[in-house]
Each structure stands twice: as structure tokens, then as C-alpha cells.
Amino acid sequence: MHTVGVKNLVEMVLSSLPRPHTEDVIEDVFVAIEQSADWLQEYQYLCIDLGKNVVNTWGGHWIANSEGKLGREQVSSKRSKLIGSYSKLTGLATTANGKRSESEARRLMSAYYQEHKNTLPAHVRNNRDLIVNLLIDGASPEQAFSLVSIVP
Question: DSSP string spanning 68-134?
Fold first, then answer.
């Protein structure tokens, strides 16, 4: 998986934040990254490797996934210079325990692909397993394909 480094970084930062996390936890994570020389260096290496857009988008995804919540409102970041905006995590994941069965995830992937294949980049076909895993973890088909579309 291309973004395992992003996942590892945000999980480490999340574990350091006081609980309960707020609906602004995505911004909180990026603020904490900015304030730690080690985390900031890791973030910068990831940006060089994957691109800032990929790191920030997947960072938000992995944070939301870890929290079992969905972003419903996009707002400008006022405290972090690393991100321009973020999703407030106000909605609970809509699937039971945030998980789907593999067969349901494959069905959703196929239906979404068939409906949107003319507008999707060709490389999404190379990421079927990643899409299925994102869907199993509770991402919507739109979110899963959007996340995979930015990773070449």
C-alpha cells in the first residue's frame, strides 16, 4: 500500500492527542505534526515521496477511519499551515462497526466502476484490492475511488 507511511504517522500522532478527540481532530493532528520536529520531518519525507495532496488527503482519510467517523463539512484550517482545509468529523460511519463484508465491498466497487468508468483514470483498475479494503473499512465508493485516483 502506497500510503502506509501516512497511516503510521497519523496513528502515532493520534495516540498522543488527549481524548476524547474533537470534531476538529484532523486539524489537531496536522497542528501536532507541525509542532514536532520528528513528525514534521517524516511528513516532509512523505510529501517528497507521494506529494502533499496525497499525504494530506490520505492523512484525513486514515484519521477519519481511525475515529470511525465521516466528514460532513469542509472548513478552512485556521491553526495549521500544512493543510488548507479539512473535514470536521461529525458523522458516524454508516456501516455496522464501520465495516462491510468483502462481498458487499466488491459489489459496491463494481457498481461504482461501471457507472463512472468513463471518467475514472485508467490506473484505478490497478488498485482494486485497495479500493475493496477502503470500502470494507467504511469509505463510500466515491471516497474510495477519489482516494485511489490521486495515487498513480
Answer: TEEEEEEEE-SS-SS-SEEEEEEEE-SSGGG---HHHHHHHHHHHHHHHTTTS-GGGGGGHHHHHHH
